[in-house]
Fold this protein.
Amino acid sequence: MTRKLFYENLYATEFDAEVLSQSEHDGKFFAVLDKTLFFPGGGGQPCDTGTINNIEVLEVFEQGDEIVHVLKDELKEKNAHGVLNWARRFEFMQQHLGEHIFAGMLYNLHGLHTARMRIEGDNVSIDIDSPVELSVILEAEAAANEAVWKNLPVEVLYPSMEEIKERARKLPGEKSVPPIRIINIPGVDYVPCCGVHVAKTGEVGLIKITSFENHKGGTRIYLKSGAAAYRWLSSLYGEVRKAEAELVCGYEGINEKILNLKAQIKDLKAEGEKNLERFLKPVAENLIRESGGKIIKHVMTGSTQEEVKHLFKLITDSAPGLAVLLASRTSDGAFIMFGTDKANKNIDVRPAFKAAIKILEGKGGGSSFSAQGWGKNLEALDEALNEAQKILESYKFFSVI
Ligand SMILES: [Zn+2]
């Protein structure tokens, strides 16, 4: 049996113990000591790490009434000296109590139940079994921080089952056997928990909600407390400063500046569309005039896919029944777009497109009235278009127009 020193002194960082047993598993060593400060994990809180006789403790878990330390190497002596990774443990103690306080406030203010809590590195999340509004989350966050500043004591109690049933925010798990360990923060929370927490709420420092989302019909809320909350806010401030510098404003003005920029982008896009139309309309009219009513084959140079698509639309909108073969030559390949107007059931451009894209060593596809793709074999563009034209011209319908 391992004595749980981590419950006896929450702030001890080193301890001496005796090695009771040790065994090797896949190159790692599982050691059981007569007592330990290493918390084995539980209640959503990860296990402690650190060293024993300067050998790294990779993981710790509870097995029956023993606590097993998974070590990187073998312990050579009977006497063990353990040292916790204290910074890590202290942050988990802050995060865990922060979670208790926040979940307690959600329960006290709105009767909301926390179904699950998890700490993963800097990230803490809780699952509430019903939908929760942002205003409710922020209200509980404010109340939780007030409880932090009151610097309330965190008591560990072992009350009767009757008292637990009457007072607890959550009932102990079915497998729990008395005595049940209760974490009590007067007026804030009263809940069964096997975790390790800071002794006073003030040590949590700050509780900050970072996001929330719908989750399986309920709500998953992400929060950070203590050092992790500070780190998150520092990184947020770094990002805000960058935005302030780019937008030349204080943080209060960022949103307004972004909305103005979005409106400007919209106007510029509309203006661009108009200019494109002005430029492409005469091109389309000219091509239609010269087509002889059957087929248009046209190569543009350096035009974007958007420009090609725009020209395609101008032609097919105003001259239904035509087969259209458009291409744009760019520095690294060719974009092709073949088709006709949607209503035209006489033309299927796919065979012509397939032949052309093969010659271009490219990829693409589409429907009977619109296919597009990009190929790298730029030198073969004329050949590809000629081949496509040949296929389209072989169709019977051209001779009956
Ligand atoms: Zn807890």
Observations:
- Residues 280-400 form a domain with the Diaminopimelate Epimerase; Chain A, domain 1 fold (CATH 3.10.310.40).
